[in-house]
Write a structure and sequence with these properties.
The protein is of the alpha+beta class. It has one domain. The protein contains four helices and ten strands. The strands form three sheets. A five-stranded antiparallel beta sheet has the order 3-4-5-6-7. A three-stranded antiparallel beta sheet has the order 8-9-10, with no helix packed on it. A hairpin with a 5-residue loop joins strand 6 and strand 7. Helix 1 packs antiparallel against helix 2. The chain is elongated and about 75 Å long. One of its GO terms (cellular component) is mitochondrial membrane. Belongs to the TMEM70 family. Keywords: Membrane, Transmembrane, Transmembrane helix. This is TMM70 protein.
Length: 187
């Protein structure tokens, strides 16, 4: 919690337990861009729907016509791009953005809340052992939960231990040279 006191930002640490959800568990993460992601996607969808309904009307009423078939194809292609490709691209880029992340301690499971294609909240339940960290850093992926890519901001976890447990950084590191040699020999 951040409050302002005479122009100086003061951060206070609260000792009370975080928000509990009866079904999902304890809230460990809340994405700061949830409203922005929802707003941008809603705006994109609404302009695409508006474009679908208004374009035929505008074409008929204004008498806009192109004599060249190539120019007509280019015009309709451009309109189709902005009508269909932009919302699909936004969905693909933001579908893994985690709005909220809950943790159920007794079962060691996480529930990630994301937006689906129709802008409804979707819950994905996974175990910590299902978390895979990509070998190469990807732009819109922090980790994979089973096969679904998820994006979180590590600095938004109120308790850093929650992020460490999610990513498996709290486990002891064990390196087995025998298995590595066997794997190299098989290659």
């Amino acid at each position: 919690q951040v409050t302002s006191f005479q122009g100086v930002a003061v951060r206070s640490l609260c000792t009370s337990s975080p928000h509990e959800h009866p079904e999902h568990g304890r809230l460990v993460y809340k994405g700061s861009l949830a409203k922005a992601v929802l707003g941008v996607r809603f705006f994109s969808y609404s302009t695409s729907i508006f474009n679908l309904f208004m374009m035929p009307y505008i074409m008929l009423k204004t008498g806009i016509g192109f004599e060249s078939l190539f120019i007509q194809a280019a015009f309709y292609g451009l309109m189709g791009f902005f009508t269909f490709v932009t919302p699909v691209t936004l969905h693909v880029l933001t579908k893994g953005y985690v709005i909220r992340l809950y943790y159920k301690d007794e079962m060691d499971t996480y529930t990630a809340i994301t937006y689906n294609a129709i802008l409804a909240e979707k819950a994905t339940v996974f175990h910590q052992k299902d978390v895979k960290i990509p070998d190469i850093t990807k732009m819109f992926t922090t980790f994979y939960a089973k096969t679904k890519s998820m994006l979180v901001n590590p600095t938004l976890f109120p308790n850093p231990q929650d992020y460490n447990h999610l990513m498996g950084y709290d486990k002891s590191f064990y390196f087995n040279l025998e298995k590595e040699k066997e794997a190299d020999e098989r290659k």
